[in-house]
Amino acid sequence: LRPRSLRRATVPRAVAEPVAKPSSNGASPTLAGWSPESWRQRVALQQPNYPDAKRVEEAYTEIKSYPPLIFAGECRTLQDRLARAARGEAFILQGGDCAEAFTQFSANQIRDTYRVLLQMSVVLMFGGGVPVVKLGRMAGQFAKPRSADLEEKDGVSLPSYRGDIINGPEFTTEARVPDPFRLVRAYNQSAATLNLLRGFSTGGYAGLTRIAQWNLDFMQNSDEGKAYMDLARRVDEAIQFMGACGLDANQPIMKETEFFTSHECLLLDYEEALTRLDSTTGLWYDCSAHFLWCGERTRQLDGAHVEFMRGIQNPIGVKVSDKMDPSKLVSLIASLNPDNVPGRLAVIVRMGAAKLREKFPAMIEAVDEAGQIVTWVCDPMHGNTESCNGFKTRRYENVRAEVEAFFDVHDSMGSVPGGVHLEMTGDNVTECIGGGSAVSADDLNSRYHTHCDPRLNAEQSLEMAFYVASRLRQ
Ligand code: PEP
Ligand code: MN
């Protein structure tokens, strides 16, 4: 295997400066015709049919008057981190619920998912030897695209559940009516979640001297829990040694960590209402999260989502399945990152191991040929969904096989694996089958809590981190 530094990075020689001088409406010259509402001239898929336009206007106006959830400067920091990941100098760990829910909202739930993400990042840093960019699918991951507009059950047909920001999951006529004031509740829940995440990140909880205390109770006796504790002890020893050498454990780098938020940019009324002009740069940022991605179902080149996303200056992502043609991918990248800014765009591939081995090399080749800079991220969840005993599930072995294929393809192409994107939780759920903890098909009905797609539980997530670390070390 070639060492990382000798890999042919998908980074072209001449690197464009970040967007040039803004014009009077705050848009860069490459953003001709763009405004926060220009998406309204295009076809917007996956939007709810609200029964009352006046109430939509009221909810929109209310959110528009609220403060931004994030600050544009944080987005620029994240973009710098993602550019490092594109060069193989950092690795992205993006994870959280498929869909956050109003009814599953508590400090403990937020803390447990955050804690597993911290544990995983320690495994990747210590085991894989790279800085880890922590990006939660948290504090705003509410809207869900659906394959079908209607859901059938026992001969009854109702509009599909589209995430708590739109309608309710209960299978009743009332719950499924889209309610625009759910936007306001989602904003408030996001603000409260983000507040706690910021507190954990800078208030001492995430300090490197606390690594051994992050292990979850129910993990203590599992293989993953033990492997983690073993690693934590080695980190403690290293910190003690560095302390003896004179390292000051009170420095911010020892006590704080960077943590960013992300969600799918799907519900465009909400995203537009939170899009604000940054007074520092005069550019538009979608202040609902640090990072937004465009889903597999809404990434049409001439569609409303691509139109909206091309203009916001946050770092962004786009999901790509095997259905994507390499030359179309190049056009889409050109549209979303016309100035070829490093770290601006992550391409999140999700197609299952077999298709990834078959189709992904041609995509890397085409993007490389075009001289485009992207951060390649592996989502091993969405190409591996299956149905079992009436539950939507995923097999750990298939998820792992896709991550394996992702690293293998990059090894053979000399390109850079930039990160992983996981649906996961710190809860002890039984939603995905397999892994060392051996959740079986019969266990699915025991603790199946997700409102949408099945998530890796804490043990499965940690097991995945150990696998990724082993690949980063090679
Ligand atoms: C998701 O991330 O939950 C999702 C719906 O993904 P995709 O757009 O890749 O299907
Ligand atoms: Mn999902």
Write the layout of secondary structure elements.
Layout: H1 53-64, H2 72-86, E1 91-96, H3 107-128, E2 132-137, E3 150-153, E4 156-159, H4 182-202, H5 223-244, H6 252-255, E5 260-264, H7 268-273, E6 275-277, E7 284-286, E8 291-294, H8 304-311, E9 316-320, H9 326-336, E10 345-349, H10 353-369, E11 375-378, E12 386-388, E13 391-393, H11 396-413, E14 417-423, H12 458-473
Parallel strand pairs: 1-2, 1-14, 2-5, 5-8, 8-9, 9-10, 10-11, 11-14
Antiparallel strand pairs: 3-4, 6-7, 12-13
Helix pairs in contact: 3-4, 3-5, 3-12, 9-10, 10-11, 11-12
Bound molecules: phosphoenolpyruvate and manganese (II) ion.
Structure description:
This protein has 474 residues and is of the alpha/beta class. Helices cover 36% and strands 13% of the residues. The protein contains twelve helices and 14 strands. The strands form four sheets. The protein has an eight-stranded parallel beta barrel, surrounded by five helices. A two-stranded antiparallel ribbon has the order 3-4. A two-stranded antiparallel sheet has the order 6-7. Helix 9 packs across helix 10 (353-369) and helix 11 (396-413) packs parallel to helix 12. It is globular and about 65 Å long. The chain binds phosphoenolpyruvate and manganese (II) ion. Manganese (II) ion (MN) binds next to loops.
